[in-house]
Write a structure and sequence with these properties.
- It contains eight helices and 25 strands.
- The protein is an alpha+beta fold.
- It has a seven-stranded antiparallel beta sheet.
- A hairpin with a 4-residue loop joins β11 and β12.
- α5 runs parallel beside α8.
- The chain starts with a helix and ends with a strand.
Length: 422
């Protein structure tokens, strides 16, 4: 048995080495820098798909060349250590893909497949981790995750920074996806973009969908960002499941795309208790290191007075509500570049929903400078019913139009109802 094991192990090692030798000539480092000789501002991997000079990589690998206005950055593909200037000819910000073209004839390209592996099958991710050297990482295919438009292949594979944009292959050396990210504070959980989105991007390029991209690239990106938030609103509205519930409060069921958690706790002196549900969309569209779009979070809290007088209970509500004002406003405060996003503008209102429940609401909103018509907003509110039960909510939305922000808030508010005695 030991001899068989050793022979099997040796066979696997030999086949992996053969796979690496076969595909490595088609995989390259991609960098952004001010010129050929300068140090890189960002880097990643990419792979050749046509001998005419076409490569696939991640959008986030080359985003610095588009989003940094103070310093002009160019894109280079390193071929035999020589940087060759590259142009973006197609881009998919939803799935974090970019198609590049260089003035070079590739000797080797990678074969794309439309067949997705079965769960548990062996896969291989390649790229240049931490700017070291081209590496092959063996992993396991765990299926496709669907978060509205943000499809990702889930892999058990220890990929690292610098491998973004590199290929993930099956055992036949065929590309099944594009390395994109890892799950932070996890062990060997990583993701790649399914190959079907690469096919879609190539088809769009060949149909001249991206004609004059160089001059209009931000208009193309804006159209894709608008498409994302429209999809998220439709996904939220189509969920007709049973309402969620915290004590006597009911509210809109979360979209199946969201990840949710709950918590039940009592105040240390047991004078009041609260129950909480928090949900977030575990994906977004990367724009730059300081800006993303197409995501939202929900937070709902019911508070039940156990022993306090009504005045004491209202004081608890008021102090808790006021104490969180700046926390919510500061959620995106690290974005200070006025060329990227405006300062927050804040206001407050009293709103009555369709169930005749009044709410005190505060909101802060800012706008994307380059991608006009898209906003970030942070909303928090508290019910104003005069009883021993209250309801808090807080929403944050990234990259939505004003119309869809209004639809989103109205949808959430109108689903809030109180089933106890008023």
């Amino acid at each position: 048995m030991l001899l068989v094991f050793l022979i099997s192990t040796g066979s696997w090692a030999k086949s992996e080495q053969a796979l690496f030798n076969q595909v490595s000539p088609a995989i390259f480092q991609i960098k952004t820098s001010t010129d050929e000789a300068s140090s890189k501002a960002s880097y990643g991997s990419g792979f050749a798909i046509e001998k005419t000079g076409l490569l696939i990589t991640n959008y986030h690998v080359i985003a610095t060349s588009l989003q940094e206005e103070e310093q002009k950055y160019n894109i280079y593909v390193l071929v035999d250590e020589k940087p060759i200037p590259a142009q973006i000819v197609a881009v998919d910000i939803i799935h974090d893909l970019a198609l590049l073209k260089i003035d070079y004839t590739f000797k080797r390209t990678l074969k794309l497949t439309k067949k997705i592996p079965l769960t548990g099958e062996t896969i291989f991710s390649l790229g240049l981790p931490k700017d070291l050297k081209l590496s092959l990482i063996k992993g396991t295919f765990n299926g496709i995750l669907k978060h509205t438009r943000y499809e990702r292949i889930l892999m058990s594979s220890p990929i690292n920074a610098g491998m973004s944009g590199g290929p993930t292959l099956n055992t036949k050396s065929e590309v099944i996806g594009v390395n994109v990210s890892v799950l932070r504070q996890s062990q060997n959980i990583s993701f790649c973009v399914p190959i079907k989105h690469v096919y879609d991007l190539i088809d769009a390029y060949k149909k001249n969908t991206f004609n004059n991209l160089k001059d209009k690239i931000h208009l193309f990106l804006q159209a894709q960002l608008i498409e994302i938030q429209q999809t998220l609103i439709e996904d939220m509205q189509k969920n007709k499941g049973e309402n969620s519930k915290l004590d006597n409060w009911t509210f809109a069921p979360p979209s199946t795309s969201l990840k949710c958690w709950s918590k039940n706790e009592k105040e240390k002196n047991k004078t009041y208790e609260y129950k909480q549900q928090t949900c977030h969309l575990p994906a977004d569209a990367y724009i730059s290191d300081t800006l993303s779009s197409g995501s939202y979070n929900l937070n709902f809290i019911s508070i039940n007075n156990l022993k306090r007088t009504k005045i004491q209970f209202y004081n608890v509500l008021e102090s808790s509500y006021n104490a969180t004002t700046y926390d919510f406003r500061d959620e995106f405060s690290f974005i200070t570049n006025k060329e990227v996003i405006s300062r927050y503008s804040c206001d407050n209102q009293i709103i009555v929903n369709q169930n005749n429940i009044p709410f005190k609401i505060n909101f802060c909103m800012n706008t994307y400078i380059r991608y006009t018509g898209l906003y970030n907003i942070i909303v928090k509110g508290v019910s104003l019913l005069k009883g021993n039960e209250a309801f808090f909510f807080a929403f944050s939305m990234q990259g939505f139009s004003q119309t869809n922000i209004e639809k989103f808030i109205r949808h959430q508010l109108d689903h809030i109802n109180f089933e106890g005695k008023r």
